[in-house]
Amino acid sequence: MRRFALPAVLVALCVALPLAAGLALSVGSVKLPLADVWAIIVNGIAPGAIEPWWPPVREAIIFDARMPRVVLAMVVGAALAVAGAVAQTATRNPLADPYLLGVSNGAGLAVVLLVVFGFGAGLFGTLTLPIAAFAGALLALAVAMVISGRGGSIVVLLLCGLAVGQTFGAVSSIILFGWAKGNQTEQVLFWLAGGFGDARWHMVAVPGVVLLLVSAGIMMAGRWIDLLHAGDDSAAALGVNPGALRMVLLLVVSLVAGASVAVAGGIGFVGLLVPHGARALVGAATRRLLPVAALLGALFLVLCDLLARSMAPPIEVPVGLITAAIGGPVFLYVLLRHRRRFG
Questions:
Q1: What pTM was estimated for this model as a whole?
Q2: Which of 130, 144, 269, 303 meets the CB 3.0–4.6 Å disulfide criterion with 160?
Q3: Rounded to the nearest 10 degrees, what angle do helices 67-91 and 242-264 cross at?
Q4: pLDDT tens track for 15-56
Q5: What is the CATH number of the domain that holds 307?
């Protein structure tokens, strides 16, 4: 398959992402002209650079309501795409995604306990739900690691993660069926489907920092990670412990996924589908793949969020439903086209 020059792809994505973000900032219950959007942003970055012709309320709409949502969508999209790319490389499985160790269901169980039983409700103010979800994700990861044991193989860890995720998901469903009242089930299901309706600036910090640190570390270790493509024997011959490296990568993937789920819910298919698109553009080498996957994931999720809140106004469709509706058929097409490679 033909690959494209990395600089050209990066430039194209760096142009497309701000254009998509500007469009997302302009669309909403109050439609803003694109010229106003960009002028307000420029004036916010360099006060006094432009003589304002817009009412002050438009600045509040952009900086306080819409921009946190767009930025959070960028960060989560990039984080899930990077985590998915690393998961697929570490497991040598094109069907791997960031939630493979059960972190999404762990976060979901924590949210169910918070919403239905009120455990810790209001303890950290508006951060209570994200913190609870992140704690639940880490709990699922910890349980999977403890059960698999220190000497367990990667396959055992993955199977434990699957079992833990299914168990946490079943407990969540039992609680919802047995004890949920009023609209509590609806609240939980909307969160599980994923979305950015409650996005605030403080919610960007944790997934943003995790994404930067993880991406920097993986880029620096790119040469060793690429050896996994050649097989365990070849990697070991070149001085890499493939088992230990895979274990570290899977833990990192789960940390990134947990941070993303905590602020946006269980948005699927971004980490599964986007890395394949990035690989088709620039190849599988880690240092080429990761920046493209991050930008492509950010662009994809911004556009999905824009579609989610503009397709049936004033109703907002959960973003996770949009990513599934788009990602499912596209991924089936990829599988059918490359069935021999994935077989």
A1: 0.91
A2: 144
A3: 160
A4: 999 999 999 999 988 889 999 999 999 988 888 888 888 888
A5: 1.10.3470.10
